[in-house]
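ok so I'm stuck.
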Amino acid sequence: QYDLAIVTKFPSDEVAAKYMLAIGGLGNVRSTTMKAFTEAEYRSITGAPPLPPRNM
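replied:
not stuck anymore, here's the structure
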């Protein structure tokens, strides 16, 4: 389904949307946008307890 995956960081969701609308307007690119969460945000959303520190 995907030929390329890109992970980007924008200052806001609005800036990301503006960028993706501009890219999509070229006509030869189709995109799927998914919001990413930090581990702390994910755990807050799901109610999962924090993992203990890993010894590396």
